[in-house]
């Protein structure tokens, strides 16, 4: 094999990408979607950069859309995409996280940024879903279900994994309640 052949081989074998998105909603149930140029509509977020964790990447993506100070909450969706990346151009596996981006009180329906290069709009879940890529639609549906059920949805290639969702464990006390006992030292 030539050097380029080996680079191509190892590049395809070890290529992994991680993406992180934020599911940001309005009080009336619309969801923030973004696109660059004429690309497809996606949740705010994108590829996790080297040295960055998924939560920080989702926070960065939400901040690019809404400005500084945006935070994200718990993980809603974990999607393992086998044999292709989220953008559809690669051959490796990828993992996508969707975090709860919270709810905004706004009547704005759309806006643009980066000199008009990026566009954003708040979309009702059933409205215009034909413009979303299949992967984005799967993440949206799973994210909304995870919010409703208080769970984390596990997807494989955009469809629910066997078992579908993982219920959060109930909160536990380290020690059972004992009558007449208060505090660590019993005072």
From TrEMBL:
Domain Nudix hydrolase: 14-146
InterPro entries cross-referenced by the UniProt entry: NUDIX_hydrolase-like_dom_sf, NUDIX_hydrolase_dom
The keyword Hydrolase is assigned to this record: yes
Keywords carried by this UniProt record: Hydrolase
Gene3D superfamilies: Nucleoside Triphosphate Pyrophosphohydrolase (3.90.79.10)
MF terms (GO), sorted A to Z: hydrolase activity
Superkingdom of the source species: Bacteria
Record bears the keyword Transferase: no
Protein's name according to its UniProt entry: NUDIX hydrolase
Species, as recorded: Arthrobacter gengyunqii
Taxonomic lineage from the root: Bacteria, Bacillati, Actinomycetota, Actinomycetes, Micrococcales
């Amino acid at each position: 094999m030539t050097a380029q052949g080996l680079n191509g081989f190892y590049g395809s074998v070890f290529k992994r990408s991680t993406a992180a998105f934020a599911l940001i909603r309005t009080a009336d149930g619309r969801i923030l979607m973004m696109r660059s140029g004429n690309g497809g509509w996606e949740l705010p977020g994108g590829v996790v950069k080297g040295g960055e964790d998924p939560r920080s990447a989702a926070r960065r993506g939400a901040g690019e859309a809404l400005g500084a100070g945006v935070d994200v909450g718990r993980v809603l969706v974990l999607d393992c995409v086998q044999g292709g990346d989220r953008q559809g151009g690669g051959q490796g596996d990828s993992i996508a996280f969707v975090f709860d981006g919270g709810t905004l009180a706004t009547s704005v329906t759309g806006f643009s940024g980066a000199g008009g290069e990026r566009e954003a709009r708040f979309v009702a879940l059933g409205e215009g879903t034909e413009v979303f890529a299949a992967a984005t639609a799967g993440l949206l549906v799973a994210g909304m279900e995870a919010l409703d059920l208080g769970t984390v949805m596990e997807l494989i290639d955009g469809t629910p994994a066997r078992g579908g969702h993982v219920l959060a464990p109930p909160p536990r006390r380290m020690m059972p309640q004992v009558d007449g006992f208060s505090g660590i030292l019993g005072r």
